């Protein structure tokens, strides 16, 4: 069994590191927040006093941080402290350019690295059923798979450096726009006297069928798994959806892709966040659509 350094023990990193412990690995964790380290230590993570202490002499380092700036600052410390042969796995959701910069820094230090962002949310992190989208060389991907398996239902190699982040961003663009389409359809149906049940029963077996309808329906009492049945407690928070759409919009600006829907979706999620919706599941955006519908 391996020794793994784990930096960032928050909503995702906490349960992910616990699953590595359950698989028999020794996990040395570090987080700036004492509440996060306290919870991780209850799950068997050995709490380190610093990033450097967490990564010295380990076989692999997993980072699960808020964004690209945190990642690059953290890599400065990690790269100076790890032993040769340590594998670097970043599972944070960050800008593709930052992910590729992190790969470059690792390569300059002679280390293999992967970007391995996840889909599946906190429930997937707890259950060990995340989907990992991996960018990096074949060799780094094969090495990372063993470390990722205890946290994963699926580990998919998406291509070279940064392509895990590209995949995640594109998936969430589809998710954001499909959720907005489903939510608008329910609000329009409400206005015209159509019951939620009738729309759900038809669309769920027709061409409107999608995950945003049949797994995370934005209106309650249609499908058991929906966060709408739990007062829109996330799930996947609207603030994180706004973050991911921001990454998509800036990547589109740099690449020249025409992604009008991503821009519009980002504006709608920005509005919902300004209205105080950021901490709710992203499906709660239906409330914002209702609020902005005329009399
Ligand atoms: P979080 O804010 O709960 O956790 C991040 C942790 O990193 C915090 O505990 C923070 O104290 C710690 N941290 C920040 N800077 C640090 C540093 N320099 N050294 C050590 N610790 C540091 O966020 P989260 O929900 O766990 O998300 C983590 C990443 O996963 C984000 O990039 C997010 O976009 C992505 N993600 C989240 C979800 C989700 O549903 N929460 C789903 C998929 C992907």
UniProtKB/TrEMBL annotation:
InterPro entries hit by this protein: 3-OH-isobutyrate_DH-rel_CS (IPR002204), 6-PGluconate_DH-like_C_sf (IPR008927), 6PGD_dom2 (IPR013328), 6PGDH_NADP-bd (IPR006115), HIBADH (IPR011548), HIBADH-like_NADP-bd (IPR029154), HIBADH-related (IPR015815), NAD(P)-bd_dom_sf (IPR036291)
Protein name: 3-hydroxyisobutyrate dehydrogenase
Annotated active site: 168
Domain 6-phosphogluconate dehydrogenase NADP-binding: 4-159
Membrane-spanning parts: none
One of the GO BP terms on file: L-valine catabolic process
Record-annotated 3-hydroxyisobutyrate dehydrogenase-like NAD-binding domain positions: 162-287
EC number: 1.1.1.31
GO MF annotation, one: 3-hydroxyisobutyrate dehydrogenase activity
Reaction catalyzed: 3-hydroxy-2-methylpropanoate + NAD(+) = 2-methyl-3-oxopropanoate + NADH + H(+)
Pathway: Amino-acid degradation; L-valine degradation
Family: Belongs to the HIBADH-related family.
Pfam families: NAD_binding_11, NAD_binding_2
UniProt keywords, alphabetically: Branched-chain amino acid catabolism, NAD, Oxidoreductase
Residues of the signal peptide: none
Superkingdom of origin organism: Bacteria
Top EC group: oxidoreductase
NCBIfam families recorded: HIBADH
């Amino acid at each position: 069994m391996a020794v793994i350094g784990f930096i960032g023990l928050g909503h995702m990193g906490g349960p992910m590191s616990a699953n590595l412990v359950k698989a028999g690995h020794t996990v040395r964790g570090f987080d700036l927040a004492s509440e996060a380290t306290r919870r991780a230590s209850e799950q068997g993570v050995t709490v380190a006093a610093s990033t450097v202490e967490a990564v010295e002499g380990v076989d692999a380092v997993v980072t699960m941080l808020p964004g690209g700036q945190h990642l690059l600052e953290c890599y400065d410390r990690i790269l100076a402290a790890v032993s040769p042969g340590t594998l670097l796995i970043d599972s944070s959701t960050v800008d593709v350019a930052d992910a590729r910069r992190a790969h470059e820094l690792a390569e300059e230090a002679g280390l293999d690295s992967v970007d391995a962002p996840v889909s599946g949310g906190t429930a997937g992190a707890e259950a060990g059923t995340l989907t990992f989208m991996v960018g990096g060389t074949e060799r780094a991907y094969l090495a990372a798979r063993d470390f990722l398996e205890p946290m994963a239902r699926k580990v998919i190699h998406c291509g070279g450096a940064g392509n895990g982040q590209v995949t995640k961003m594109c998936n969430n663009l589809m998710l954001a726009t499909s959720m907005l389409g489903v939510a608008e359809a329910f609000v329009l149906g409400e206005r015209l006297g159509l019951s939620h049940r009738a729309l759900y029963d038809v669309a769920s077996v027709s061409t409107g069928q999608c995950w945003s309808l049949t797994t995370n329906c934005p209106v309650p009492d249609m499908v058991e798994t929906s966060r709408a049945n739990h007062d829109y407690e996330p799930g996947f928070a609207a603030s994180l959806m706004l973050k991911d759409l921001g990454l998509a919009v800036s990547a589109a600006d740099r690449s020249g892709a025409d992604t009008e829907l991503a821009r519009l979706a980002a504006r709608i999620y920005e509005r919902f966040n300004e209205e105080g919706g950021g901490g709710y599941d992203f499906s709660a955006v239906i409330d914002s659509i209702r609020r902005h519908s005329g009399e």
